[in-house]
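Narrative summary of target 7.
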Amino acid sequence: MKKNKEKIHQILVKAKEYLWITIAVAIITFALEYFFFPNLIASGGISGLALVLNSVFNIEPSILILGFNIILFALAFLLVGGSFGGRSIYASVLLAVFMWITEKLLSPRAITENLFLASIFGSLIIALGTAIVFNQGSSTGGTSIIAKIINKYFHIPIGQGLLLTDCTVTILAMYVFGVELGLFGLLSAIVVGILVDKFIAGFNPVKQVFIITSKEKLVVDFIMKDINRGCTILAGKGGFTGGDTSIVYTVLTSRQFITLKNFIKENNPDAFITVTESTEALGQGFTEH
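Modeled conformation, tokenized:
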């Protein structure tokens, strides 16, 4: 009976996660189809590249996005490993499906033709949808995959890898659409990057995390190898049991913490986690002294 309840609870949790991802992808689709694409604003990423190639080859953006993500996920599994889970695959495929439905059935038109308003409000909406996706331990594929591949083979931080790919798309947009539209695309990419972090973590950029666990190696290996972050192991003793235990201390960005939280929830649910917001972190991997 207890096992059945646990299974039902796990199913409900998964269903809730996928529901939020579905809502978030719908929000992102709305911003792309009603603010960015009609105004030829290529805000970086795979969606921006799809818009540029659509203008050159007249191939529907939804088909291009799906095709790019299939190729990128295949490369990710070959070059990086299977760290891109089912939720990310679901989100990336759903984005292409929602865009295709919108393009075929709704014939979307720009809500505003004012490029500044379209850039700002489109970026605001996309950032909200993207933050929801990240909060569910997922992504919509695209440049996040490219950034992770670049990080592994060229040791360039993921944030810089994302900026590099977005700038490349912006340069292509300038060539195809003109400098002004290309700059609006760059503005949108910058605004989205800033707002996503604000939506996820408010104004607190890092989190101090203490994990009391009996599976020290499992947790430490994930932090070091998958999140690419350092940690400190402290020896502890249970006040109630008197038994020895390990305390893992690490400092993470909000996105990294979400990834770690989801991993521990699935692989070490008995672990005890405390999280403290920190306004700034200085040192390797963070802001320099």
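The mean pLDDT is 82.
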